Amino acid sequence: xxxxxxxxxxxxxxxxxxxxxxxxxxxxxxxxxxxxxxxxxxxxxxxxxxxxxxxxxxxxxxxxxxxxxxxxxxxxxxxxxxxxxxxxxxxxxxxxxxxxxxxxxxxxxxxxxxxxxxxxxxxxxxxxxxxxxxxxxxxxxxxxxxxxxxxxxxxxxxxxxxxxxxxxxxxxxxxxxxxxxxxxxxxxxxxxxxxxxxxxxxxxxxxxxxxxxxxxxxxxxxxxxxxxxxxxxxxxxxxxxxxxxxxxxxxxxxxxxxxxxxxxxxxxxxxxxxxxxxxxxxxxx
Length: 285
Ligand code: GLY
Known about the structure:
- With 285 residues, this protein is of the alpha+beta class.
- It has ten helices and eleven strands.
- A seven-stranded mixed sheet has the order 4-3-2-6-5-1-11. Strands 7-8-9-10 form a four-stranded antiparallel sheet.
- Bound molecules: glycine.
- Glycine binds at residues 168-169, 186, 188-189, 198-200, 218-221.
């Protein structure tokens, strides 16, 4: 069976990134397995300051950077939530899966764990991060003063802030030797409150992998969580064409930024309701 790695740099990301992602997919594919491939792909994208994950993650309203990442294979999950000051949240998520009895570590507990296993203090901010933060503060200091109220509805929030400026999550799905894996990493969406958690680290929402495939989501995390998007897609795999399943699910977002990449035993597909850069590497055709 052919091995495949599919990666994306977020709903809202410019398709001019496609050649870069094709290269990243080629460089990160590992014959050692689907897990190694998706983790390496996400690590490379975290290190690319043009993407909102790892280095280049967007700031919260208070000026801090908190990141989410997760990895999943059939029956195994590792996830970090609101982790700060590490270079590669995806590597910490993998370590949660492989070195602890837990599935998810959050906040200072995730940071403490990362330090104990050797992840050094690292500032993921970049000049682009600072520029986006300045823009967010300018919008927030505008005519509307009631910030918490703005968060009551993400639809309203998206309308006010023009969310597509945010490049969102990076993610990867792979099928290697018939086994599946999914990985995802994000700095969240800007502007957002400290402590806000999106879909990415939540199994079934931002990612899902099992015996029959793998799915990763990108877009407005609140809407993705409300729909348990990735599990919903996984559940339908094999019942009809993968393209039809993901198109129906994403069209249901009615324009709220959303996209997915997905892979099954015999197909793969990507779909977004806005621009989304994607890279694919196929091995052993
Ligand atoms: N999809 C990433 C987030 O909403 O945080």
